[in-house]
Design brief:
With 451 residues, this protein is α/β, with parallel strands linked by helices. The chain folds into two domains: 172 residues, Lyase, Ornithine Decarboxylase, Chain A, domain 1, CATH 2.40.37.10; 256 residues, TIM Barrel (Alpha-Beta Barrel), CATH 3.20.20. Helices cover 29% and strands 25% of the residues. It is built from twelve helices and 23 strands. It starts with 28 loop residues before the first strand and ends with a helix. Bound molecules: ligand LLP.
Amino acid sequence: MSLRAADHSKKPDNRTTMELGACLPLTAEVREGDLYIGGVDMVKLAREEGTALYVYDQEDVETRMRLYRESFRSIYPHADVLYASKAFLNKEMARLAAVYGLCLDVSGGGELACARMAGFPMERVFVHGNNKTPQELEEAISAGVGRIVVDSRIELARVSEIAGRLGVTQPIYLRITPGVEADTHEYIRTGCEDSKFGFTMLEDFAFRCVKDALEAPNVQLVGIHCHIGSQIFALDSFREAARVMVKFMADVKREYGYELTELDLGGGLGIAYTTHDRPSTINEFARVTVEAVRDFCGEYGVELPRLLVEPGRSLVATAGVTLYTLGIIKTLPNIRKYIAVDGGMSDNIRTALYDADYEAVIANKADEPRTEIVTIVGKHCESGDAVAIDAAIQHPDLGDVVCVFGTGAYCPTMASNYNGQPRPAVVFVKDGKARVTTRRETYEDLYGRDC
Ligand code: LLP
């Protein structure tokens, strides 16, 4: 895998850190040239805890959790917000989600285990996944999870059998593929049926499977779910998905005389990774979603359901940053300037995988303008190992602390040990205090499992 070619038209933007607007965590500030988050000096923290280091602005996370819940509940009392824990999960994050009244979306036995260890209320746990193993299903059902989002007919039979064996009735949703594919700018209707997830609506398959779910013993079908994509800017796509889903509920009521009382519209709200991104706000997302559900329930004659959304990225991405120490500078005249940090694709695979863009600053020069364009690369044995390509940054020197913004979602959870790299610690900062909530991996952690 090679690197995206340098874009020589990109010019330094001369912005200082505080001019990065929506890319910054809530409590970011600059004091005497250093970047502070949660009242903690990122330069000192990097030197004390070592790098690479994941840092979360706890107040940012808490504020968004509160805002999400209030934005929905103030205009639609029977609404719940599920945190999609695949974005980032450790015990402390699960604890915060519980305190702020969120439900939790887990996608496997591991995330469920974390929720249990953190004491997260099981009735607020929703279990997702297109191939939950029989063992994971059994763990979930015996733990008493609130909902299992059934992804296929095969799984429906499994859930029914396991619940029967355990002597319980398991509340379930069916995951429907609504044929709405979200894009940053528009929604596309074709091609999106080709998905490994959920029940397709083609040839009325999903609709016919509702009958199976209603007839299956030991399960209670209470609602339907969809998830149309991620990093979505165009709220129209959510409205369109709501229309398809509410119409489906109306069809079920008419044909089967059965009322589905819960509607989960999934996650997907986008965030600002760069200063060019213009995502919708949490408030707008709530307003559009609720309006759509009210409109279509009215239009199709469906009782207003319990409404759920499942944000991951828009709850935690902006709160998280990654700190690195700059180790190598390599200038190739007329090609590009590389700065190499002590992490890379092992702690942030998104750049290599999705060609993602990030904003970065030098934390110890946070009040200086970003006068250079560099490509921030990692330490891994792979040319495509980049964290930020053609990124504006302050003049770099060896030993600088590089801070990359917007890494709070899908960076820790998709991290690897490539090249024997121990995964970074996770530190939560708030009110001038830093707390290690997940310690750095050790070499023993890496190879201690070998027999
Ligand atoms: N619900 C379900 C069923 C999902 O599959 C997802 C994300 C979410 C909720 C949360 O979506 P969000 O609000 O975070 O967009 N690794 C990719 C993102 C994959 C998203 C997978 N599903 C990335 O790094 O961009």
